[in-house]
Amino acid sequence: MYRFLLSRQWVILTLVALLLIPTMIRLGIWQMHRYEERHARNQLVADALGARPVAVEKLTAPGHTVTTKERYRTVTAVGRFDTGHEVVVRRRVNSDEEVGFHVLTPFVLADGKVLLVNRGWIPSDGPSQTAFPKIPAPPSGRITVTGRLMPDETTEASGIKNLKGLPDRQVMLINSEQEARRLDARVLGGYIVQTTPEPKGDTPELIGKPGEENAPLNYAYALQWWLFAAGVPLGWVILARREARDRAAAQQKPAEAQAEPAGV
Fold first, then answer.
1. What is the sign, positive or negative, of the torsion defined by CA atoms of 248, 249, 253, 255?
2. N or C: which end of the chain has fewer CB within 10 A?
3. 225-239 pLDDT, tens per residue?
């Protein structure tokens, strides 16, 4: 009854099914690993954002590389903004995907060390982004700033090329080593994304908190692949039984046709 399973068509179909099952299982395992990675990153971000603010020099120093656990930690610093050495970071977008600049202002601490502060996003004055934009001044004098600690930007991590020959006071990446050479100063590793004080007139536009990665989506994809893997042998059995039933019915019809005259 099931000799048709040895036919070329069914041998190929069976081999394809046998290949699909482990492939789908492996894809499900990969999606589960992605879920675990994203869940872990979300937890790190949540823990960092929820941690008590600390003085910036407790977490970073000149030459320090900001670690994954230190990233997004809320830090405070007391000093003054040095707008004379302010630069803008090219090709940055805001929440509405508009292209403009990030404003990077050195913040001089009491001991002379410098903290790089990303004060937020501003639009460009024109489509070419070659002219230095008008930037609202930060508060003057000795103040306290608060922000989220971030690691130095690199081409490897961001995918942004660190172009040469840029217009005056424009950079592509926020990098403390690069800024230390430009300023000839002791610059703390990494930089902060300013959260307070809030700018007057909402300009520069403060950068929002990092969004949460959609880890449950990967979990759902993993279950989906495993359901597909379980469905392959079930589908194979259903197709085989249907084929056997159709073949049996096709064989039965000629027998019935031959039996009718004898019964008349």
1. positive
2. C
3. 999 999 999 999 988
